[in-house]
Amino acid sequence: MAEKKDKKSTKINEDGSALSVCEATQKMIDRARELKVSTVYDRAAAMKPCLIGAEGSCCKNCSMGPCRVPPSKKEDEPQKVGLCGATAETIAARNFARMVAAGAAAHSDHGRGVAEVFLAAAKGEVPGYGIKDVQKLLQVGLDLGLDVEKMETKELAIKIGEKCLAEFGQQEGELLFAKKAPLKRQELWRKHNLMPRGIDREIVEIMHRTHMGVDQDYKNLTAQAGRAALGDGWGGSMIATELQDIMFGTPVPVTGSINLGVLNEDTVNIIVHGHEPLLSEMIVVACQDPEMVKLARSKGASGITLAGMCCTANEILMRHGIPIAGNFLQQELAIITGVLDAMVVDVQCEMQSMSNIAKCFHTQLITTSPKAKIEGARHIQFEEHNPIETAKQIVRAAIGAYPNRKSNSFIPSEKNDMVVGFSHETINYLLGGTFRSSYRPLNDNIIGGRIRGIAGVVGCNNARTVHDGQHLALIKELIKNDVIVLTTGCSAMACGKAGLLAPEAAKEYCGSGLAEICETVGIPPVLHMGSCVDNSRILIAATAVVKEGGLGDDISDLPAAGAAPEWMSEKAISIGHYFVASGVYTLFGTTFPTTGSKKFTEYLFNNLEEEWGGMWDFVDNPLDMAKKMIAHIDKKRKALGIDKARDRVLMDMQMRRELDAV
Ligand code: SF4
Ligand code: MSK
Questions:
Q1: pLDDT digits over 3-27, tens only?
Q2: pLDDT mean across residues, the chain
Q3: Which of 19, 184, 248, 530 has a 20 to 30 Å separation from 463 between CA atoms?
Q4: 361 and 429: one domain?
């Protein structure tokens, strides 16, 4: 039986600060400590980060090192260099570029896997997968320069699969999706030699250039990191998003629920965790199979509950309304509820600690990708040529574990409702209507000042700061100041748990201009656009706003900014760098991996804007971060000559009639 008491949690850090602003998380940290199960929160308190490594000042690129070159403490003390003479800026830039390479590789390898399955499905070689969104198939065909009118659906799908796969190994030329960017941006990429040639090539070139004794010019390294990152955002990630939409459906608004309270005491509980929807789409089907439900009942369960975690969760939430159990820093806690029968993982953001924690309970930890095995976990390999059978095997394993539950389970009661599914296509349709889908009303409302600007707030949780706290403080401040927020990843989940993804949030949290728009259109002020690879949707939305007209002719002209206040993964650095290289002012919180080199950091935070139109920044306090983002938005409004429009905050009748027509 689950323990009935669900009292308010109490646990805090030694310094008195909270560990999480999510009540369910706080309760589960209490619970873990009662049970003496160590979690990331305890390990973060016990092990402090190495400051030299954290600021990018440690090089271990050859066996004469590691060389540590922290900033000099005294003015007259010469700055240290590595044994080979590598300067602090070279070392920090090489480390930074390698983070971009790893992040871009992770997203892009995901995209490659999707493209391979897509091509096999197009050829009719994979049972269970097909073309769900023919409209998007046609659009992507056009984007890739195919003569869509002359082709049947099957032929077109095969051509699209082949073209996308070829993007990874292309040696010369330009990535095809990069040509979707505003023309001015494309020209800038060509001028600065930033246009990606092939996705894999740019990543390999970073690894070469950062080898001992190769590229020792921090600006040159920053540019190559930019080219690889653009190969992620406008290549690997965009391929993943576009092909997943065609195969599994482009998200449309759907309701869902979130937090650990979605788990049920009397059902078999399965969580799918990681990033790729290929297998989880099939697990959704398998969990609804009458044969599986009957099997679960035969073991005494009342049914099967499927929930998601991290970005796999976002994928199946956006397309099927499957509930989310939590974000990155809740993965261990889901097992500690004692009611999780299977934790099924694919790739990325999976903590190895789950293996030990699962041993304290009855939970089956199941790995499914040949690229991501975990010692101590059971491996059921995803067979892409018979995915439904793999999915059923996993569901059977979970059902088999159900009778082994131990007696002392505890499920926190927290569970929130939300509206999600705001793909670029949906925003277009919602704002413009069926017959005149367009971003015109959004642009007009930005020009008119009811919406001050656009912010993308994305990214991870980080155990070095209060779980979800930075995301929520930042986003609440932005919407209070009439800045509409687009969100993905774990940030989107933090918003869902806090009620910001409900249309009612507009009235409670927004400034009057943004509240009017949200209430009229019936949307939340924070739009959930999907998983980490779906940050490519934000690039497309920004491009659509530029192309709609009236707000400049490049992404860098828009009153917009991006942020990842709790980032932790290398993927986040790649995402940040492709946003900067796409012309966006991008702010990270918690820590920044180059601060050991003042010169290199200055370049990223200041000089880059002159060259690329976008730049990096680091601000630890979320309210200060909001201030800087809003100041940047206002600077762009001024440059566009629309800064006066915001004086008209009180609407007259004519403005209201225009708004109603939206
Ligand atoms: Fe040290 Fe240079 Fe080797 Fe890096 S490459 S570890 S700085 S000697
Ligand atoms: S899952 S990359 S913790 S957002 Fe995409 Fe969340 Fe960050 Fe993983």
A1: 444 555 555 565 556 799 999 999 9
A2: 94
A3: 530
A4: no
Q: Are residues 436 and 349 in the same domain?
A: no
Do residue 326 and residue 181 come from a single domain? no
Distance of CA 352 to the CA centre of its chain: 21
Instruction: Find the ligand nearest to 95 CA.
Output: 1
The answer to whether 375 and 353 have CB atoms below 8 angstroms apart is no
Ligand 2 pocket, residue 310 CB under 6 Å? yes
Residue span of the structural domain in which 611 resides = 421-640
Q: What is the pLDDT of residues 270-297, one digit of tens each?
A: 999 999 999 999 999 999 999 999 999 9
Instruction: Output the pTM of the full model.
Output: 0.95
In 312-437, which ranges are E strands?
324-326, 342-345, 364-367, 378-379, 416-420
pLDDT score at 654: 54
Residues 458 and 600 in one domain: yes
CA-nearest residue for atom 6, ligand 1, is 65
Ligand 1 atom at shortest distance from the alpha carbon of 60: 6
Instruction: Select from 412, 604, 420 the least CA-distant residue to 524.
Output: 420
Share of the chain above pLDDT 70, in %: 94
Is 83 near ligand 1, meaning CB less than 6 Å away? yes
Q: Does the beta carbon of 351 lie inside 6 Å of ligand 1?
A: no
Q: Residue 60: CB within 6 Å of ligand 1? A: yes
Residues 455, 525 share a domain: yes
**73, part of any domain:** no
Pocket test for ligand 1, best of 58, 212, 214 (most atoms within 8 A of CB): 212
The H-assigned helical ranges of 128-276 are 134-143, 153-169, 183-191, 199-209, 218-231, 237-248
Regarding whether 581 and 450 lie in a shared domain, the answer is yes
Digit-coded pLDDT (tens) for 489-514: 999 999 999 999 999 999 999 999 99
